[in-house]
């Protein structure tokens, strides 16, 4: 009797659509700079010849390495894509997913612009994988504190201190991963000041230096692996893997969709079920959505929930009609 009740409750369609999730988020990290966060620090005094008044903050979820790029408060998604291409892409390549609190429309526009800049080589891997993360907020607080201390009365000169601020932050031990973001990324600790003595090009110790350097690089590679594993373990401790296959039925979260309903709060948290038609990358899936829905059909696994079918029901009517136009929410 107990097992029957549990089975009945777990397959309740209304409950699956309406109740908030209690499980850990789905999706695990698997490579540095695979998932990044984008945020902006605004309200700064104009600085430099370009009269910058904001900072684009890009954080790698795995290594915690952070890039600070001066910009304007009016920076658009297209301009953000160009900034990413100039400041991040040459060193770390393209990410798999973008996290931002600026809305799904901003991220979608960013991806399209990024693809154009790369001559169409970048593709939108997942739709609406967004969340406001406290990680970037902490980075912003640290940066603001640094600039506050070192600019003093000369607040309009904050752009001069930004490169050193980025180095100082990334070369400092990070409590989450146990090493500095620079070490987790590069495998060595960069020197703040050059050595007082430099060996000559004909120094007989050059060969020994090269050998020692090779050993150091190999040791650093192992250090990167350990640091990455440590970071992934910390991040994944609050998440859980989810294995889905083509043909499975899933529910889709509506938090990043515009739903034609009188009240968003009283609308189902999930809609569906929808059939998975394709797996995209490691953590995204393409769904068979109604053709009238104006949204990208590929979604990150964190926005999906496995649907438990109730065999007693032959059909599962949608709470949102197929003829309603769903679109990205600003």
TrEMBL record:
- Cellular component GO terms, alphabetical: nucleus
Segments forming domain Integrase catalytic: 28-189
Keywords of this entry: Nucleotidyltransferase, RNA-binding, RNA-directed DNA polymerase, Transferase
Q: Which GO terms describe its biological process?
A: DNA integration
Gene Ontology MF terms in the entry: RNA binding; RNA-directed DNA polymerase activity
Q: Name one Pfam family in it.
A: SH3_Tf2-1
What residue intervals traverse the membrane? none
Keyword flag GTP-binding? no
Q: Which InterPro entries match?
A: Integrase_cat-core (IPR001584), Retrovirus_Pol_polyprotein (IPR050951), RNaseH-like_sf (IPR012337), RNaseH_sf (IPR036397), SH3_Tf2-1 (IPR056924)
| PANTHER family to which the protein is assigned, alphabetical | PROTEIN CBG26694, PROTEIN NYNRIN-LIKE
This protein is called what?
FOG: Transposon-encoded proteins with TYA, reverse transcriptase, integrase domains in various combinations
Taxonomic source organism: Ceraceosorus bombacis
């Amino acid at each position: 009797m107990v097992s029957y009740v549990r089975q009945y409750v777990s397959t309740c369609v209304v409950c699956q659509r309406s109740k908030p999730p209690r499980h850990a988020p789905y999706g695990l990290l698997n490579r540095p700079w695979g998932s990044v966060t984008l945020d902006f620090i605004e309200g700064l005094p104009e600085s430099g010849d370009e009269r910058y008044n904001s900072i684009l903050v890009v954080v790698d979820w795995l290594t915690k390495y952070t890039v600070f790029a001066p910009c304007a408060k009016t920076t658009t998604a297209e301009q953000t894509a160009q900034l990413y291409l100039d400041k991040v892409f040459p060193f770390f390549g393209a990410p798999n997913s973008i996290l931002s609190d600026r809305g799904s429309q901003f991220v979608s526009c960013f991806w399209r612009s990024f693809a154009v800049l790369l001559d169409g080589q970048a593709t939108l891997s997942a739709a609406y994988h967004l969340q406001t993360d406290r990680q970037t907020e902490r980075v912003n607080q640290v940066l603001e504190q640094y600039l506050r201390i070192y600019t003093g009365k000369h607040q309009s000169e904050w752009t001069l201190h930004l490169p050193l601020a980025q180095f100082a932050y990334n070369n400092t031990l990070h409590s989450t991963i146990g090493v500095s973001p620079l070490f987790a990324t590069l495998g060595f600790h960069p020197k703040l000041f050059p050595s007082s003595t430099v060996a000559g090009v004909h120094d007989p110790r050059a060969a020994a230096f090269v050998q020692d350097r090779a050993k150091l690089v190999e040791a650093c590679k192992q250090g990167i692996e350990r640091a990455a594993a440590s970071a992934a373990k910390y991040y994944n401790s609050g998440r859980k893997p989810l294995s889905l296959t083509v043909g499975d039925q899933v529910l889709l979260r509506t938090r990043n969709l515009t739903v034609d309903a009188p009240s968003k709060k009283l609308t189902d948290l999930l809609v569906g079920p929808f059939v998975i038609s394709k797996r995209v990358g490691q953590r995204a899936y393409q769904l068979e959505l109604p053709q009238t829905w104006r949204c990208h059909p590929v979604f990150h696994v964190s926005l999906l929930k496995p649907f438990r079918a109730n065999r007693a029901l032959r059909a599962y009517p949608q709470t949102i009609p197929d003829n309603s136009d769903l679109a990205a929410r600003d």
